[in-house]
Amino acid sequence: MSKELITQADRDLFKDINIFSVKEFIHKYDNAIYDVIKRLLNLEPNRIFIPQYAGGIFDSTTMGINAFVPSKEKILMPEDPKGPPSIMHEIGHWLDMKDPKRWIIKEWGFDDWSPIPFEETTVSITNKKAIHNKAWSYNQYKADRSKKSQARFTKYLSTELRVRSIEYRLNSSSFQTNKFINKIIGSFNWGDMSLIMLPFAKFQTVDHLKDWIGTLGQTTYNHWTEDKIEFEFKKRLDYWGEWAETK
């Protein structure tokens, strides 16, 4: 199998941007791709493809992001056009996802990237730029203080923390607790919105939040050894492969 698997529908989905095969991707970015990533991608070199787009493509129809798109012929996982290693984030999400049924669903079945459901806002969202509007995000978080909203935010934040911790393993870095905490707290979306939400769930202060971020990050890092990552990635590929063979 080869790039003949890439259809016009795929090109339409990713706006006719570059879509690399594993071999092309590694050849182009060889010095920038971590060895762990190379080993994982080479477990299925003929049916994994890498569209070169940061964060995926916003789909205004489904209000979702086309960042992980599996089909029975192939798996599409995007990479930042500035170069690797943003594909680590997609791999991290796949590893973190525990439910096998969601291993073969576009974007793992996440309805949207936002911790706040779209149906809960009256703001008109028509494109990706609107999604990233800080004013909308701030106002939405300030307005919704329900336990449902806080629980949803905590769940999404936990997922993001685990995935970003897995990335440390994928780039063969040692885990530095303070650096990890500061990176999360200093980021738009998760950092800014965490501070806006305080107090929420079990977190009353910034220190409480930072302690939890550091502990969850370190625990996740300890759990995901390189051997476990390779084992679990292959497990997901095998599950996808079996599904791909069904009618």
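the 2nd protein, sequnce then structure:
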Amino acid sequence: MTGDEIGDTIMLAIDNLIAANPAATRGQIFRAMGQGLLNSGFTSGFDWFWGETSVDASAARATIDFSLHRNISVLVSVVNTEFIFATAPLYTTHVQVRIVQCTTGGMNVIFPSGIKWAAGLSPGLIMAPDTISFVSFFYAAGVYYGMYGTDFS
């Protein structure tokens, strides 16, 4: 099934849920839609929306495919780990990367060029051992707009 066919199927499901439940909240609709997708065998779509996957960064490179998952976790264990956004999301959406420093800390991350960062500043990640940083992106029309939070320890 192509991305457009999946999108059409999802939009039809949303329209049907709204018509059948006019008083339902958006949260109720999305939970019902997610369960409907899961029951219909769309586990990859369900995982993409709600799941998280881990990316191996042991070779100083973390290849991230946002078409498969929108929540990515990366354990950074190599100095100057380069993030490569291999495949963009299929639709305009928010995506997130959780960056976990290894037990020794001191590992830096290099983001792809072309990201438009809040205030024009790329993240200065806290590199202490075992700290966690979150980098969130809004993706639209081929552009990633990034913002971040650091030092969740």
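The mean pLDDT is 77. Residues 52-152 form a domain with the Jelly Rolls fold (CATH 2.60.120).
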